[in-house]
Please model this.
Amino acid sequence: MAPAEATIGEKLAILPKVFAALGAALTQLALYPIYGDSKDTGAFRWALYGTFRSLLASLTPVQEAVAFPKTVTVYRSIAKAQKFDPVVEKTPGGVEVCWFGSKTADKLVLYFHGGGYAISASDGHIKWLSSLQKDLSASGKSVAIAVPAYTLSSTAPYPQQLKEAVEVTNWLLNDQGRKSSDIVLSGDSAGGNLTLALISHILHPHPQIPTKISLSSPFAGTALISPWCKFSGDASFVRNFSTDYIANATGDRWGKQFLGGAPHDQYNYPLSADVKWWSGIERVTAGLLVNGGSNEVLIDSIEATAKTLKQAWQGTETLILPGAHEGMIMDVTLGYTGKAEATKAIESWILKQWSS
Model:
């Protein structure tokens, strides 16, 4: 079911929330000389994180649909601005997939975007992925990135997103003739949650999803960027409140909307999966990288999940660098032009997996 259309009143109600968010930025900026320097966030980021944190916490699902255009719309807009031909395909089940680079490229990154399952891929996502594809290809390899525009939780809750991830994966492997050994799985935030759910489904087929995924060989690797392993309640939500842009209330609301009344399980709540659950993960992916920001609100559950994955398989690598939640993507959103250290590390890791 599609979310209700926003009324004129609901649209107009966004404006005072925007002004309140700008006020939060000014408050944040005033506090920067007292609290900001200790975590090296920078005054500009510090202020704008306050803006985003206030706005995301205040919008309703209907207003989110107004404020954040659909993934395919954002993708086409960036393609026009960057002067590349947008390619959007539909799987037999109707999932739209946005392509960066040639569909016939030898290597592929299957990427699931973040946004709490509540909002579409941002222009920061699309710009970052466009640059990632170009930089990976500059290594001499032929690389494409495929980004499914999965159904948001305001339209259909869990496990719809996992059903679509399974469909896209099988479409690439079976209909498109892709080899799993040429594919790197990746995703940020909710997309990292979805990537882990996909791996869980391959290891333990979901009882509500009859379609299985059969692999002839493991995926080349899996790169998780600030994966959403616990919806809210981490101690780091308090500790890193001012150095990130997601409030605990936002994570809690998005999590409840995503679940739609379903209980937590190992597919939708990776932190709850134990070592036994992840046993055999090396048969699914030839490498596993868990990346997080030391100043982000989700870092406690990210590190806890990474520890469990490492206990299940020693091939798991953890990369914690200074910064906020998916900070390299947020930097692109904020207009920073330099390549983040996390981006460099992830690019290097992906290329290493294809060379193994």
User: Anything to note?
Assistant: Residues 14-36 form the longest helix (23 residues). The chain has 13 helices and eight strands. The first strand starts at residue 87 and ends at 90. The beta strands are 87-90, 96-100, 107-112, 143-148, 183-188, 221-225, 288-293, 316-321.
